[in-house]
């Protein structure tokens, strides 16, 4: 059931094992290569810029620390441009006995010369697949919490932002298993001296903005569970926790997030929704604060022949310093999404997506793209 749902719901993921080029397959050992190349034209728009904190930096000439003021939140104009990018990955599997196999996977995102994040590792892990005993992997990939959000992550470009998920993390140990319609996953993240994947809690609040540039995740863990019914309905729930601190300032704290989700597929139609809550607590010598956030995501698609139509809605609001007098929730994300995709073949597709902004001072956004998968 899960494979059927994903095939309908996530048309963006053509670069999957099903489309991979099998380089070697013999005596229980397989090795596949997969990837994609695409070109996007993004229309002109403006985007918000988060506030930055002031900090002390050394003067290159004198070596004496000088105060560098931060900048307030604002907006910047982004010119329309054509942007190229590519993705490359491989996966391997070797049979150890009738039950257990060794597995490994790597995947990188490579952007064009003038783009940011030119070379970004996405998935890098190694582990064991024990069939009915489950799978255990070690390395970098999505945490268990993403299992709840995956159902609404169906767009090629946007969507899936009504949450406070920190994204793929390195240094993880992850166990997953599925028995009948039940499925579950547990993940634990070891110490990360430089936690670079941080999610905006809203109102310019990020772990970086609170804890300073040197955010350390001492440890983190996540859990997700769900059930897929035979008639197309799936239910999911998840929780994640991170213990955080600053290595340059006297600040400690933690981050928690909860999520509930559901999805349903029938006759080419797919519907999904997720509700999330997030808390970011931080303590200093002058006291503690807690920022609270909540959000939800809705997504739908309809597939007929080579065409896929997509629609979605994302909403997120945050209450900064929630215990302060007069603190109230303020909208951070409020957007409708529309998309049309056409598959020339199983490997070549074109799509266009449009984001209708509900936040004041932000422009609507759109893109047109051509993508080749191998």
TrEMBL record:
Keywords: Membrane, Signal. Residues 7-355 form the Porin domain. InterPro entries: Gram-neg_bact_OMP, Gram_neg_porin_domain, Porin_dom_sf. Its main location: membrane. It is a multi-pass membrane protein. It is found in: Cell outer membrane. Residues 1-20 form the signal peptide. This is Porin.
């Amino acid at each position: 059931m899960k494979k059927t749902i994903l095939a309908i719901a996530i048309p963006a993921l053509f670069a999957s094992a099903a489309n991979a080029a099998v380089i070697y397959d013999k005596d229980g050992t397989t090795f596949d290569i997969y990837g994609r190349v695409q070109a996007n034209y993004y229309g002109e728009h403006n985007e918000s810029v988060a506030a930055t904190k002031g900090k002390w930096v050394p003067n290159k000439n004198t070596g004496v620390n000088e105060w560098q003021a931060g900048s307030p939140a604002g907006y910047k104009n982004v010119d329309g441009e054509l942007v190229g990018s590519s993705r490359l990955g491989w996966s391997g599997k070797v049979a150890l006995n009738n039950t257990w196999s060794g597995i490994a996977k790597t995947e990188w995102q490579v952007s064009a010369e003038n783009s940011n994040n030119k070379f970004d590792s996405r998935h890098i892990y190694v582990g064991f697949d024990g069939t009915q005993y489950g799978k255990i992997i070690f390395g970098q990939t999505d945490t268990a919490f993403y299992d709840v959000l995956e159902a609404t992550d169906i767009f090629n470009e946007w969507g899936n932002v009504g949450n406070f998920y920190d994204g793929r993390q390195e240094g993880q140990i992850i166990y997953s298993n599925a028995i009948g319609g039940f499925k579950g996953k547990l993940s634990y993240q070891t110490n990360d001296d430089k936690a670079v994947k941080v999610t905006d809690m809203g109102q310019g609040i990020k772990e970086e903005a609170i804890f300073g540039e040197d955010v350390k995740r001492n440890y983190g863990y996540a859990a997700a569970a769900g059930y897929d019914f035979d008639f197309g309905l799936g239910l999911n729930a998840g929780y994640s926790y991170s213990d955080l601190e600053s290595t340059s300032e006297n600040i400690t704290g933690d981050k928690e997030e909860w999520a509930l989700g559901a999805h349903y597929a029938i006759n080419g139609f797919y519907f999904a929704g997720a509700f999330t809550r997030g808390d970011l607590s931080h303590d200093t010598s002058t006291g503690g604060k807690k920022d609270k956030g909540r959000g939800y995501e809705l997504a739908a698609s309809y597939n007929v022949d080579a065409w896929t139509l997509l629609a979605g809605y994302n909403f997120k609001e945050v209450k900064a310093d929630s215990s302060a007098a007069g603190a109230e929730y303020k909208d951070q994300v409020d957007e409708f999404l529309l998309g049309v995709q056409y598959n020339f073949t199983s490997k070549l597709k074109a799509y266009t997506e449009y984001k209708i902004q509900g936040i004041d001072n932000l422009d609507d956004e759109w893109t047109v793209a051509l993508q080749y998968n191998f």
